[in-house]
Every structure is written in structure tokens, then in C-alpha cells.
Design a protein that fits this description.
Blueprint: H1 7-27, H2 35-61, H3 65-80, H4 85-104
Helix pairs in contact: 1-2, 2-4
Amino acid sequence: MGFFDSDIVQQEAKQLFEDYQALVGLGSKYGKFDREGKKQYIEQMEAMMERYRIFMKRFELSEDFMAQMTVQQLNTQLGQFGITAQQMFDQMHQTLERMKGEIEK
């Protein structure tokens, strides 16, 4: 069975995408959130990034050809922007930390 043939992988990918889209949509109203709403949004984004990091690690560890191709495609796409996957996660973490700092002011 291939990596993408797994019902678990398909369901997690679908759920990650749907949850991410919902958070992005919600993020467009971030400026209107009260302090507690901003905290909750940041916490949800942190949880989303961790889920995504774990999901991508599964791709990296898989010996499945299509999983490896997916990792390579992501690396190629990010490379066009001059960053690695780790740098992408680091930048997102820094952004969320900056957002937390702004809430505390």
C-alpha cells in the first residue's frame, strides 16, 4: 500500500487543509479580536503548525516514492523563495511569538 493510499493519511491531510483554511479565514478578522480572542487564535495556529510539522515528518520518514516526491516538491517550491522547510517553520514560530508580544503590550 502506498503512503497516499492510507485512509488515515488521506483523512489527516483533508482535516489539516480544512482546519488551515478555516484559520486563515478567521485570521482576516484578527485585528477585531479582543485580547483573549487573539490568544486563542495564536494557540490554534501553533497547534496547526505542530500538526503540519508532524505530518511532513511522516512524509520524510516514509520510503514511499510518492511521499518522497512530495517532500522534494515542497523543498523545490520553498527553495524558489530561498528558504527551507525548517526556515518556514521557524519564521512562522517567530511571527506567532511577535504576535504574542504585541498582545502583552
